[in-house]
Structures
1.
Amino acid sequence: MKNSFSHTLSNMKISLLRFVFYSLLFSWGTFFFSCSNSHTDEKNEAKKYCVKDSLFKTITLDTVKVERVLGELTLSGKISFDEVKVVKVYPLASGHVQEVKVTLGDYVNAGQLLALVKSPDVASILNDAVAAKNDLAISKKNLQVTEDLYKSGLASEKDYLTAQNDFGKAQALFTRSNEILKIYASPEGNLSSYYIKAPISGFIVDRKINEGMEIRSDAGDNMFTISDLKDVWVLANVYETDIAKIKLGYDADVSALSYNDRVFKGKIDRVFNVLNPETKVMNVRVVLNNPDYLLKPGMFARTTIHYSENKKMLSVPSASVIFDNNKNWVVRFHDKCNFELLPINIYKQLNDRTYIKESLIQENDRIVTKHGLFIYNALKLM
């Protein structure tokens, strides 16, 4: 009996020890699990990134758009005269150049004296004018006499009509001779010389005569070329591979080496649909306003043509694109505690727009364009 009681007491002690052991084990497990959850929550909380109000005020956002893809084509070329506003001055008569009053690059007004030429032909022109004046006076007197005889019945109607016709011819010849004389006459009344005058206002862009030269009216050579440089042309070269991108009316930006910081605006107003057999290029013409005469014929010009491709793509501001680890990224905005990094596959970048060929972003998504790199680095480190 005593042994049985001892055995029972021993079993009770063992059960109590087991109870205490499992109780302690459960308590330690609960404590460990609780600590583990707490650590996980803290870790998840640490991953959540919120932009401070002070920084958020400086962030700029923009919207992803679907736009037609624009393109640029850069062409080389030269500044040229506006040939519509160019006049070549030829000699009126053969002779000896006595004086040249202008030089290359001078600005002249219409009617201004350019050169003095001594010519024996001027005397002949004067004689023709004097003869025409005498013929006019004789035909006028004859018409008056014939008219009086016709009214008194002493002359026929045919005689009167003939006298009228002769007077009309003499009057036309006199007017013509005097107009020619005005062109040739020198201000000093020197009947053996004549002045070359500017037919239009503009710049002397070419001069082919000097004092002492002999000139001929039948040689076909001009003495001066005058151009109004308020408008100039740019003749740009287009290679075969780029011809399909060029159309009449496209906008063009022109820059010259002398004015690297300035862009001149124009449009393509003519496409020369012929290839140069030697250079294998086609020319296009851009008309530019040149009110300050900055652009000079002969200058080299770089012409950028703006054209539109026949496709539409997602586009974002180029300022929003971040390049890192050989990839391009944008930061998509949901709210100030929710930003997302998304890779993009760029089709091309043009000025301030970037066209996207492939990405998870969609039209109307909002992306960060200013301070995006700061947010990108903060999210990357988390």
2.
Amino acid sequence: MAETIIYRSIIVVSQHASWLFGQILRARYSVSTHGPVQLFENSSRHCLILAPAHKNYLDPWLLMIGLRHRHFRALVPVRTLATQDPGGALQWLMPLIKILYWLGGVIQLPPEDQDDRSLPEKLRGVLVALKHGDVVMIFPEGEIHREAGVGEFAPGVIYVYRRLGAPIIPIAAWMSERSWLRRRYVVQFGLPVHVPDNLDQNAGAAWLREQVLVLYEDIKQREEQ
């Protein structure tokens, strides 16, 4: 129990430091965040599932640094579900990434060579974090979707929702075309949603994707004006 409290404290401190130093990313990305005013205004929110679209390896940081500090403070600790098998040059940085994962309280999926584990086994860490009252961040697309729009959603996020009933916050992210100077990165938070009970996991994932897609279209229309 004491070890859990100590580690949780390490995660909170690390995430506050990450939010602070993450502001450096604004030199490369022009980040703006939109959402319902009341979303984080009431009190500290816990036991939530954040379900963002996935546009960039830096999404977990870009999504957080766009929040005002008092809104960010209402969420932490945020436990992100992440892969142990990043592609490209990041594979060589995996020892460093694992240290950052530990400091940031990241929940790791099993390696691809152990991908025969069942969904409950893969997502056990997420369920434990939610039961402790933490906020978890799950990218339902499962991988970066570089094209316009929102990719298909896997059913894992709905499995977690069904087990604990934690509200889901749909989040859309839009990023401008590549530029040598700065790229515009826009985030749109939605209100917490509850997936209709009559939908199975796959249909529930499709329903959640539609909620994110509506938010994405709102960003797109605003940026095109």
